[in-house]
Specification:
single chain; about 300 residues; alpha/beta; Spore Coat Polysaccharide Biosynthesis Protein SpsA, Chain A; nine-stranded mixed sheet; two-stranded antiparallel ribbon; 11 helices
Amino acid sequence: MIDLSIVIVSWNTRELLRECLESLYRYTSDVTFEVFVVDNASSDGSADMVRELFPQVNLIRNEQNLGFSKANNQAIKVSKGKYIALLNPDTLLIEDVFSPLIKYADQHEKIGAIGPKILNRDGKTIQYVCARRLPNLYLEFFELSGLTRKFPKNRIFGSEYMTYWDHDSSRYVEGLSGACMVVNKKAIDDVGMMDENQFMYGDEIDWCKRILDAGWKIYYYSGISIIHYGEESSKQIKHDLINIAKNSRWYYYKKHYGKIYAFTYCVLISLFSMSKYLWSFLFRKKDNAVKEMMEIYKSNLKWSIQKSIK
């Protein structure tokens, strides 16, 4: 068995994928590893680029976009690593990331998943999603009400992403970012692979919850960093992202907490969408930005009503 299997799911990110792979082979050392690129029917020549420039990569070419979970599972099923690393194609290694993560996980047997600090494209500011809490209705209320944005440094209102914490210290957490996380193969054998009922968004959080529920631990290792450009694939379907994200969250709540919990999530969306729409309609100047937000509120309200009656 080798140390690590690195899985990269790509959709129309040719140049970023090339840079990611170059940095991966440049910096990864002191571990034995294999790399899988799962191409979700890209139309920009991504798969051909991988085949030509990185013949050592295990390339899986899909004829249609299967989404994040299914594509990752394709590679996980045939992987040989003691650990499985999920890595986004729009990430860039700036140091040896995986060797320290594996070394730390080897020293702490109950770690089911471990992840590094993730930086924005400026290489300085942190993407707080890299170490987070699992979502719940309590946190949803603070987010939807605007309290999280108004008081980001408050421990009560600091949201899923714990924005009150600078993320400069290592600690056990509830969730990691799927942009770069390393999962113990034993934990995968214990809890199963990624849930293929989700196309994208929330899939790694579902995985983290199942890992925690099975008695494993999740660790955020702040001593190493990786750059994540962010949403380079998803912005290609920007008009669908809001509903995809809400559907993912609704599914997560229904799966783990039941229909009433998921229904209550819809109620929260309805109440805040309606109140924000009415406030904008009655009291705000109708410039293009406000009109766009009002359309989003209407869409959210329609979505929540449809989900509530399912």
